[in-house]
Every structure is written in structure tokens, then in C-alpha cells.
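>> received
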Amino acid sequence: MKTVIACVLAIVLGVSAGVGTGFLSYADPGPDFEWMNKPLVYETPSADLETGKVQSIDVVDGEEFDFGIMDRGETREHTFVIRNNTQTPMYPKVTGTTCKCTVGDLEDSRIGPGEEGKVKLEWVAKSLDTEFRQTATIDSGNEIRPDIALSVFGRVIQMVDARPRRLVFGDVSVQDEHDGQFVVYAFKDERLTIVEETWSDPETQEFFDFEWQTAPDDVLEDMADATSAVICKVTMKPGLPMGRVYQELQLKTSSSKAGMIEIPVIANIVGDISITGSRFNKRTQLVQLGPVQSSSGMETKISLIVKGKFAPEFKIEDVEVDPDDEKVLLVEVDETRNFSNGKVTMVPVRISVPPGAQSVNYSGGERYPPATIKLKTNHPDAEELTLSVVFSVVK
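>> returned
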């Protein structure tokens, strides 16, 4: 009986404790437990999120800048302004660039919240007639915008330029007159003029004439950004010595931004006389011997083929060689032969480097100019033929 009473009392006490706990859960907990009824609020490190503002890192006036037209060799720079519209500082540094780029005007390389900093890009225009775009990548040190790409672009030209930049006449008869034309454009001057012209080779200068005139407006349409232009004409007169002719026309213009404009003039003067040979290059008019072993030497042969009314009596009257040393370069004229009942004459010429020749270098260029052979003839249209010989002698 006592056991049953004890069990009943335990049940009653358990129910009472459960009711009490439920009551406390919904009753006023008192001042020591006010935190239990307050809503949970998570704090944020950015005050902008509370106000609804968007954080950003901006480049004032844009990430790109157009330099426009630049003269060849000219240096320009542009400063980009970066604004920090975040709640944390920036620590910008250059991590990649295709041009000269510096981060300047920054205190300890730091841009604080709400502050501005400057990044300067510098570009040297070394290309000619090309569009360019140069980019620098900036590490901002701020997670809002970790990388910033800044670019400069534009066009590189000469303030005065010619099209075409050279005159190549090709094969020209010794008896004919030929002319060529080019246009000189200016890109800043309102009116371009030619102030002075000179020729690089005084020996053949008398065979060239030069004249110019202001170009009409429709010529400017062929060249972007040109502001004025002149049309130039070069006339090559008959009588030039046979072989390759090279002149350089040097023009001084009214443009204060331009130096001398140089126009190469190239032609191959031909006539009744032509030259053939396995080591003779018709395009360059060079006899090409190449490297020659001193122990063995080398010999080649060219032939002068003469046609026309002067062919039956044609002959080579004299030979001049530079260097004038038969132990280095020997030139011998063989017996003249006539063909087609005297209408065609062939004169073989042997050119050789004798065995045992000393080491020399006539491989061409300004430092090692080629050897020359001058053939004096009785032909009225080709009294002198000049050949250039490129070779070197090695032991």
C-alpha cells in the first residue's frame, strides 16, 4: 500500500514541474532575462549596407584615354584618377604593364575611404603609321574591385610623310626619259611647301629634275588625318650610265615638326647592251663571288651581249679595277665573238680571285663596300659600264 502511494506522489510532482516549466516559458522572464525576448541583429563592417549605398572603386572619366595623333618619337602621358568609394583603404600597385606606368601622388601608396589617388601612364611612339593600345593592370588591394585595367590608345604618324616612300623605275632604256610621282602629306600644318631639294649623288644629279605643286583637296582623302599635301614629280633624263642607278632625293619642307624627307630613286639602265653570267644578279647588278678560299681561289665569267647598229664595231677599250691589285681581283677580256651576220656581238669577261690571295672583305655595305669594275667601251650610249663585285677571301 505504501508503495502505491509513493508512485502516485511521484506522478503528481512530475506533472506539476512540467506545468511550471511551461508557465515560465511564456511568462515575463524579468529584467535578468530581457535578452531572451529581443530579436537577433547581425552587425556588418560596412555602414553603406545599412544606408543602402553601393560600395565601388571608380576611375574618374573612364579607364581609357585617347592620345589621338602622335608624332613618331613623341612621348606623352596621362594621369588617371581613382576614387575609393568603399569603407576600407586601397593599396594600389602595378602588377602588369605594356608601357611605362607609375603610381603617383599617393601618400604611402594608400587611398583611404572617400579619397582619390592618381596613376600615370607614359607612352613613347616608336612605331610608324600604326594604331596602338597600351594597358596597365593595377592591383587595388581592395576586395571590392581587386584589379583595375587602365588603357591609352591612339595613332602614330610622322608629321610629314611621303607615299610611296621610294621610286623604283625598274629597267629603263638608256635612250628614254622616265618620270615618277609621289605625294608628301602634312598632318598638322595648314599649308605644306617644299623649301629645298638636294640629291645625294652629284655625279648623276644632272640627269634628274624635280618639281612640285600643291595637291588638290581630293588627294587628302587618300590619307587619314592629313591637313595638306604636295604632289612631287621626278624626271629621269636619257644618258645615264648603264647598270644600277641609285639616287636619294632629300626634301626640306616648311613643317617645323619634320626633318628631311628622303626618297630613294632606283633604276636599272639598259640598252643595246645586256650582261649575263651565272654569278651575275640582274636585279642588283652585282657579281656575287661570296666567300673565297685563298688556297683555291675562284673564277667566274660574264658576257656582254651587244645588239643594234653599233654591235659590229663594239669593243672594250679599257678596264679599271678597284682594288687595283691583280693578286686580289683579276679582270681579263676574252676574244670578241660575232653572231647573226655581225648583228650581235658577245664579249666574254673573266673575273677571278687568284689562288694565294690575301684575306680581304668586299662583302658589301657601308663598312665593307664592294669592289668595282669599270669597262670603258666605244659604244656612244654606254661609254662606261660599272660592275660591283661582292666577295671576301678567307684563309
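>> The first helix runs from residue 2 to 26.
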